[in-house]
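quick one before i forget lol
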Amino acid sequence: MTARLLLAGGAVAAGLVGGGIAHELSLVGVHQGYAPEQPVAFSHKLHAGENQIACLYCHFGATTSRHAGIPPAGVCMNCHGLLQRETVDIARLKEAVAQNRPIEWIKVHNLPDFVYFNHSQHVLGAVACQQCHGPVESMVRVRQDMPLTMGWCLDCHRRSGVTPSETRSVASHGSAVAVAFADTAHARPEAHQPERPRPGLDCGKCHY
């Protein structure tokens, strides 16, 4: 009886340790909560929250480009060239502009090199910035609020899908694998309106 209890206890302990290791490995490359200190303490809470500056005023590239882009300091000076308020960080900004020196911002949201992500497709698809970036308008220092994992993206695509999908089975090493294909042959918008990008589950959309 004692030997059986020891074996059972050992199996449970091994399972817990294995589960813990598997959990830690699943978080490799996930930087949720990452919030580096920036060279200039820019507060999104002040600008996007209290002053209600639209995200796309500064990150204008998000409407037409794969990248949202970090706004050049000249965009900041559209306001700070007129405002009288002075702080240490505003002085750093003005000094960089006067010296024609770019501010070395630290990128917060990073995806693996093998992932293709296009901001403009999501913006045109009416995806709110907060869906991926969290409540940025409340952040004094920007952090990665969401996990940005493949499973997290696919869950959003499944919830946001506006067209039915069909599934077919293909042979792969002797087993049937279900592959989803978005049906885009119908429900087209009016001809005078640009077609909104549709979320899909096709692997080649993000990995090609």
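fyi The first helix runs from residue 2 to 26.
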